Sequence to fold (365 residues):
Amino acid sequence: MEPLPPIRTPVKSRWREFRVRFLPVIVFSGTLAIAIYLWSISVNPSTLLGEVEIVQSEIISPESAVLTNLFVERYQVVKAGEVLAELISTDTRVAGTEMSTLRTRLSLRDFQTGAILNRERTAFDYNAMKVEYLAHKIDLADYEAQLSIADALVERLKNGVGDQVISQNEYALELQRRDALRARAETTRSLLEEMNLRLLPSAYVTNTFSLAAELQLEDFMQDLREEEERLDDITHRKIVLRAPYDCVVARIHRRNGENLIAGEPIITLNATKAEKIIGYLRQPLPIIPAEGMQVQIRTRSLQRTEVVSSIAQVGRTYEVITNLSLLRPGFSQEVGLPIAVHVPAALATLLPGEIVELTLHSASQ
Fold:
Protein backbone atom coordinates (compact mmCIF):
# COMPACT_ATOMS: atom_id res chain seq x y z
CA MET A 1 0.00 0.00 0.00
CA GLU A 2 1.42 3.33 -1.01
CA PRO A 3 1.81 6.13 1.65
CA LEU A 4 -0.57 9.04 1.47
CA PRO A 5 0.83 12.36 0.29
CA PRO A 6 1.42 14.99 3.07
CA ILE A 7 -1.24 17.60 3.54
CA ARG A 8 0.16 21.09 3.27
CA THR A 9 -0.74 23.74 5.88
CA PRO A 10 -2.32 26.76 4.25
CA VAL A 11 -0.32 29.96 4.33
CA LYS A 12 -3.23 31.76 5.92
CA SER A 13 -3.10 29.36 8.85
CA ARG A 14 0.62 29.86 9.26
CA TRP A 15 0.19 33.65 9.24
CA ARG A 16 -2.56 33.42 11.87
CA GLU A 17 -0.29 31.31 14.10
CA PHE A 18 2.55 33.79 13.67
CA ARG A 19 0.28 36.70 14.57
CA VAL A 20 -0.97 34.96 17.66
CA ARG A 21 2.27 33.46 19.03
CA PHE A 22 5.21 35.56 17.85
CA LEU A 23 4.08 39.03 16.72
CA PRO A 24 3.10 40.27 20.24
CA VAL A 25 6.49 39.23 21.61
CA ILE A 26 8.31 41.01 18.78
CA VAL A 27 6.25 44.19 19.16
CA PHE A 28 6.70 44.23 22.95
CA SER A 29 10.47 43.64 22.72
CA GLY A 30 10.87 46.35 20.08
CA THR A 31 8.81 48.85 22.09
CA LEU A 32 10.81 48.06 25.24
CA ALA A 33 14.13 48.52 23.40
CA ILE A 34 13.00 51.86 21.96
CA ALA A 35 11.82 53.02 25.39
CA ILE A 36 15.13 52.09 27.00
CA TYR A 37 17.07 53.85 24.28
CA LEU A 38 14.97 57.02 24.53
CA TRP A 39 15.29 56.95 28.33
CA SER A 40 19.09 56.64 28.15
CA ILE A 41 19.55 59.56 25.73
CA SER A 42 16.76 61.90 26.83
CA VAL A 43 15.97 61.31 30.49
CA ASN A 44 18.39 61.39 33.40
CA PRO A 45 17.17 60.94 36.96
CA SER A 46 17.89 63.68 39.48
CA THR A 47 19.41 61.12 41.86
CA LEU A 48 23.21 60.97 41.82
CA LEU A 49 26.11 59.78 43.90
CA GLY A 50 28.14 62.14 46.00
CA GLU A 51 31.42 61.88 47.89
CA VAL A 52 32.07 63.39 51.30
CA GLU A 53 34.82 65.91 50.59
CA ILE A 54 38.37 64.97 51.64
CA VAL A 55 40.27 67.99 52.99
CA GLN A 56 43.96 67.11 52.57
CA SER A 57 47.16 68.97 53.42
CA GLU A 58 50.84 68.30 52.80
CA ILE A 59 53.37 69.06 55.54
CA ILE A 60 56.54 70.00 53.66
CA SER A 61 60.09 70.93 54.57
CA PRO A 62 60.45 74.74 54.35
CA GLU A 63 64.14 74.40 53.48
CA SER A 64 66.92 71.84 53.16
CA ALA A 65 67.11 69.97 56.45
CA VAL A 66 67.56 66.64 58.25
CA LEU A 67 64.51 64.98 59.80
CA THR A 68 65.56 64.35 63.40
CA ASN A 69 62.30 63.54 65.19
CA LEU A 70 59.05 62.18 63.78
CA PHE A 71 56.38 62.11 66.50
CA VAL A 72 53.41 60.57 64.62
CA GLU A 73 52.48 57.31 62.93
CA ARG A 74 50.13 56.54 60.06
CA TYR A 75 46.41 56.84 60.88
CA GLN A 76 47.18 58.61 64.17
CA VAL A 77 44.69 61.33 65.13
CA VAL A 78 46.33 64.65 66.04
CA LYS A 79 44.99 67.96 67.36
CA ALA A 80 45.56 71.42 65.92
CA GLY A 81 48.95 72.78 67.02
CA GLU A 82 50.34 69.37 68.00
CA VAL A 83 54.00 68.85 67.09
CA LEU A 84 54.40 66.49 64.15
CA ALA A 85 58.14 66.55 63.45
CA GLU A 86 61.39 68.38 64.15
CA LEU A 87 64.08 69.25 61.59
CA ILE A 88 67.62 70.57 61.73
CA SER A 89 68.31 73.02 58.93
CA THR A 90 71.20 72.27 56.58
CA ASP A 91 70.51 75.10 54.14
CA THR A 92 73.77 77.07 53.96
CA ARG A 93 72.04 79.84 52.02
CA VAL A 94 69.70 80.63 54.89
CA ALA A 95 72.50 80.31 57.43
CA GLY A 96 74.75 82.48 55.24
CA THR A 97 72.09 85.20 55.04
CA GLU A 98 71.64 85.25 58.79
CA MET A 99 75.39 85.22 59.31
CA SER A 100 75.71 88.18 56.96
CA THR A 101 73.13 89.97 59.10
CA LEU A 102 75.16 89.10 62.17
CA ARG A 103 78.29 90.48 60.55
CA THR A 104 76.46 93.71 59.75
CA ARG A 105 75.23 94.06 63.31
CA LEU A 106 78.69 93.32 64.65
CA SER A 107 80.13 95.97 62.36
CA LEU A 108 77.61 98.47 63.72
CA ARG A 109 78.51 97.52 67.27
CA ASP A 110 82.18 97.97 66.35
CA PHE A 111 81.48 101.48 65.09
CA GLN A 112 79.47 102.42 68.19
CA THR A 113 82.16 101.10 70.47
CA GLY A 114 84.78 103.17 68.62
CA ALA A 115 82.79 106.35 69.26
CA ILE A 116 82.27 105.52 72.92
CA LEU A 117 85.79 104.33 73.73
CA ASN A 118 87.79 106.66 71.55
CA ARG A 119 89.72 107.92 74.59
CA GLU A 120 90.30 104.44 75.86
CA ARG A 121 92.22 103.11 72.87
CA THR A 122 93.77 100.20 74.68
CA ALA A 123 90.44 98.95 75.87
CA PHE A 124 88.94 99.52 72.45
CA ASP A 125 91.64 97.38 70.87
CA TYR A 126 90.67 94.63 73.24
CA ASN A 127 87.02 94.82 72.24
CA ALA A 128 87.89 95.17 68.57
CA MET A 129 89.89 91.97 68.89
CA LYS A 130 86.89 90.38 70.61
CA VAL A 131 84.66 91.41 67.70
CA GLU A 132 87.21 90.10 65.22
CA TYR A 133 87.36 86.86 67.18
CA LEU A 134 83.59 86.47 66.97
CA ALA A 135 83.62 87.35 63.26
CA HIS A 136 86.20 84.62 62.62
CA LYS A 137 84.06 82.26 64.69
CA ILE A 138 81.13 83.04 62.40
CA ASP A 139 83.36 82.39 59.38
CA LEU A 140 84.41 79.06 60.89
CA ALA A 141 80.80 78.04 61.43
CA ASP A 142 80.03 79.04 57.84
CA TYR A 143 82.98 77.01 56.50
CA GLU A 144 81.97 73.97 58.56
CA ALA A 145 78.38 74.18 57.30
CA GLN A 146 79.58 74.37 53.70
CA LEU A 147 82.12 71.61 54.32
CA SER A 148 79.44 69.12 55.43
CA ILE A 149 77.55 69.74 52.20
CA ALA A 150 80.74 69.51 50.15
CA ASP A 151 81.70 66.18 51.77
CA ALA A 152 78.32 64.71 50.86
CA LEU A 153 78.61 66.03 47.30
CA VAL A 154 82.12 64.62 46.87
CA GLU A 155 80.92 61.22 48.07
CA ARG A 156 78.06 61.25 45.56
CA LEU A 157 80.41 62.32 42.76
CA LYS A 158 82.82 59.58 43.74
CA ASN A 159 80.04 57.02 43.39
CA GLY A 160 79.12 58.64 40.08
CA VAL A 161 82.68 58.27 38.80
CA GLY A 162 82.61 54.61 39.76
CA ASP A 163 79.35 54.20 37.84
CA GLN A 164 80.86 56.17 34.91
CA VAL A 165 78.12 58.82 34.97
CA ILE A 166 80.36 61.64 36.31
CA SER A 167 83.57 62.83 34.66
CA GLN A 168 86.90 62.78 36.47
CA ASN A 169 87.32 66.53 35.86
CA GLU A 170 84.07 67.35 37.61
CA TYR A 171 84.97 65.09 40.54
CA ALA A 172 88.46 66.62 40.79
CA LEU A 173 87.05 70.16 40.70
CA GLU A 174 84.62 69.46 43.52
CA LEU A 175 87.33 67.65 45.50
CA GLN A 176 89.60 70.69 45.11
CA ARG A 177 86.84 72.99 46.31
CA ARG A 178 86.17 70.74 49.33
CA ASP A 179 89.86 70.68 50.24
CA ALA A 180 90.02 74.47 49.94
CA LEU A 181 87.07 74.81 52.34
CA ARG A 182 88.72 72.41 54.77
CA ALA A 183 91.98 74.38 54.60
CA ARG A 184 90.11 77.63 55.32
CA ALA A 185 88.35 76.02 58.25
CA GLU A 186 91.61 74.69 59.72
CA THR A 187 93.33 78.04 59.24
CA THR A 188 90.47 79.91 60.87
CA ARG A 189 90.40 77.43 63.76
CA SER A 190 94.14 77.93 64.37
CA LEU A 191 93.66 81.70 64.18
CA LEU A 192 90.88 81.53 66.77
CA GLU A 193 93.06 79.54 69.15
CA GLU A 194 95.84 82.08 68.81
CA MET A 195 93.48 85.03 69.30
CA ASN A 196 91.98 83.37 72.36
CA LEU A 197 95.42 83.13 73.94
CA ARG A 198 95.96 86.83 73.23
CA LEU A 199 92.57 87.87 74.57
CA LEU A 200 92.78 86.18 77.96
CA PRO A 201 95.74 88.29 79.34
CA SER A 202 94.15 91.49 78.02
CA ALA A 203 90.89 91.10 79.90
CA TYR A 204 92.13 93.14 82.86
CA VAL A 205 92.20 96.39 80.84
CA THR A 206 88.42 96.74 81.14
CA ASN A 207 88.97 97.72 84.80
CA THR A 208 90.66 100.97 83.71
CA PHE A 209 87.55 102.41 82.01
CA SER A 210 85.69 105.38 83.39
CA LEU A 211 82.33 104.65 85.01
CA ALA A 212 80.25 105.84 82.04
CA ALA A 213 82.39 103.98 79.52
CA GLU A 214 82.31 100.87 81.67
CA LEU A 215 78.50 100.85 81.84
CA GLN A 216 78.25 101.27 78.08
CA LEU A 217 80.85 98.58 77.58
CA GLU A 218 78.85 96.18 79.75
CA ASP A 219 75.85 96.69 77.48
CA PHE A 220 78.04 96.07 74.47
CA MET A 221 79.48 92.89 75.95
CA GLN A 222 75.98 91.67 76.75
CA ASP A 223 75.07 92.23 73.10
CA LEU A 224 78.14 90.25 72.08
CA ARG A 225 77.10 87.34 74.30
CA GLU A 226 73.60 87.42 72.81
CA GLU A 227 75.03 87.44 69.30
CA GLU A 228 77.24 84.49 70.19
CA GLU A 229 74.18 82.58 71.44
CA ARG A 230 72.38 83.52 68.24
CA LEU A 231 75.32 82.12 66.27
CA ASP A 232 74.85 78.78 68.02
CA ASP A 233 71.16 78.88 67.15
CA ILE A 234 71.96 79.54 63.48
CA THR A 235 74.41 76.66 63.18
CA HIS A 236 71.98 74.27 64.94
CA ARG A 237 68.68 75.84 63.93
CA LYS A 238 65.67 73.67 64.79
CA ILE A 239 62.49 73.72 62.71
CA VAL A 240 59.28 72.53 64.41
CA LEU A 241 56.33 71.41 62.24
CA ARG A 242 52.83 71.48 63.78
CA ALA A 243 49.38 70.26 62.72
CA PRO A 244 47.33 73.06 61.10
CA TYR A 245 43.98 71.61 62.28
CA ASP A 246 42.41 68.50 63.81
CA CYS A 247 43.29 65.72 61.41
CA VAL A 248 44.51 62.17 60.90
CA VAL A 249 47.88 61.16 59.47
CA ALA A 250 47.09 59.67 56.05
CA ARG A 251 50.63 58.98 54.86
CA ILE A 252 54.24 59.36 55.99
CA HIS A 253 56.72 60.04 53.18
CA ARG A 254 59.99 60.36 55.15
CA ARG A 255 61.52 58.86 58.28
CA ASN A 256 64.05 59.93 60.93
CA GLY A 257 67.56 60.62 59.67
CA GLU A 258 66.59 61.31 56.06
CA ASN A 259 67.84 64.41 54.25
CA LEU A 260 65.16 66.68 52.86
CA ILE A 261 65.15 69.38 50.22
CA ALA A 262 63.02 72.51 50.33
CA GLY A 263 59.41 71.80 49.39
CA GLU A 264 59.66 68.02 49.83
CA PRO A 265 56.53 66.49 51.46
CA ILE A 266 57.01 64.77 54.81
CA ILE A 267 53.47 63.97 56.00
CA THR A 268 50.03 63.95 54.34
CA LEU A 269 47.13 64.92 56.60
CA ASN A 270 43.38 64.37 56.15
CA ALA A 271 40.79 66.35 58.08
CA THR A 272 38.72 64.22 60.47
CA LYS A 273 35.51 66.11 59.72
CA ALA A 274 33.98 67.18 56.42
CA GLU A 275 31.77 70.17 55.75
CA LYS A 276 30.60 69.42 52.20
CA ILE A 277 29.52 66.60 49.90
CA ILE A 278 30.59 66.82 46.24
CA GLY A 279 28.41 65.42 43.47
CA TYR A 280 28.27 65.77 39.66
CA LEU A 281 25.25 66.33 37.40
CA ARG A 282 25.56 64.88 33.88
CA GLN A 283 24.26 66.31 30.64
CA PRO A 284 21.48 66.87 29.80
CA LEU A 285 20.76 68.41 33.20
CA PRO A 286 17.55 66.87 34.61
CA ILE A 287 17.24 69.86 36.92
CA ILE A 288 18.96 73.25 37.07
CA PRO A 289 20.84 73.37 40.39
CA ALA A 290 20.95 76.57 42.43
CA GLU A 291 22.40 77.58 45.78
CA GLY A 292 19.94 76.89 48.58
CA MET A 293 18.07 74.16 46.66
CA GLN A 294 16.95 71.29 48.87
CA VAL A 295 18.84 68.00 48.58
CA GLN A 296 17.90 64.71 50.17
CA ILE A 297 20.97 62.82 51.42
CA ARG A 298 20.75 59.06 51.84
CA THR A 299 23.57 57.07 53.38
CA ARG A 300 24.66 53.69 52.05
CA SER A 301 25.15 52.05 55.45
CA LEU A 302 23.24 49.00 56.67
CA GLN A 303 20.79 51.27 58.47
CA ARG A 304 20.03 53.82 55.78
CA THR A 305 19.55 57.37 57.01
CA GLU A 306 17.80 60.09 55.01
CA VAL A 307 18.37 63.77 55.86
CA VAL A 308 17.41 66.92 53.99
CA SER A 309 20.16 69.48 53.35
CA SER A 310 20.82 72.25 50.81
CA ILE A 311 23.24 73.13 48.04
CA ALA A 312 26.14 75.31 49.22
CA GLN A 313 27.81 76.08 45.88
CA VAL A 314 27.35 75.21 42.21
CA GLY A 315 30.30 74.93 39.84
CA ARG A 316 30.53 77.16 36.79
CA THR A 317 32.33 74.69 34.52
CA TYR A 318 32.01 71.00 33.73
CA GLU A 319 34.81 68.90 35.22
CA VAL A 320 36.21 65.44 34.57
CA ILE A 321 35.04 63.05 37.28
CA THR A 322 38.21 61.56 38.73
CA ASN A 323 36.58 59.44 41.45
CA LEU A 324 35.76 56.09 39.83
CA SER A 325 33.12 55.39 42.50
CA LEU A 326 30.99 58.24 41.12
CA LEU A 327 30.99 56.98 37.51
CA ARG A 328 27.85 55.39 36.10
CA PRO A 329 28.03 51.70 35.12
CA GLY A 330 29.49 51.20 31.68
CA PHE A 331 31.38 54.51 31.62
CA SER A 332 35.15 54.74 31.98
CA GLN A 333 35.22 58.55 31.88
CA GLU A 334 32.58 61.22 32.39
CA VAL A 335 32.25 64.96 32.86
CA GLY A 336 29.73 66.64 35.11
CA LEU A 337 28.69 69.90 36.70
CA PRO A 338 29.96 69.86 40.30
CA ILE A 339 27.72 70.81 43.21
CA ALA A 340 28.66 71.14 46.88
CA VAL A 341 26.08 70.16 49.51
CA HIS A 342 26.22 71.08 53.21
CA VAL A 343 26.82 68.19 55.61
CA PRO A 344 23.95 68.45 58.14
CA ALA A 345 24.54 68.00 61.86
CA ALA A 346 22.53 64.76 61.79
CA LEU A 347 25.21 63.25 59.50
CA ALA A 348 28.24 64.52 61.42
CA THR A 349 29.50 60.94 61.66
CA LEU A 350 30.09 60.74 57.90
CA LEU A 351 33.72 59.99 57.12
CA PRO A 352 35.67 61.88 54.42
CA GLY A 353 35.57 59.90 51.19
CA GLU A 354 32.28 58.12 52.06
CA ILE A 355 29.78 57.67 49.19
CA VAL A 356 26.17 58.85 49.65
CA GLU A 357 23.10 59.21 47.42
CA LEU A 358 21.81 62.70 46.59
CA THR A 359 18.34 63.57 45.30
CA LEU A 360 17.69 67.13 44.17
CA HIS A 361 14.29 68.74 44.68
CA SER A 362 13.28 71.86 42.76
CA ALA A 363 10.99 74.50 44.25
CA SER A 364 8.03 73.10 42.29
CA GLN A 365 8.56 69.68 43.82
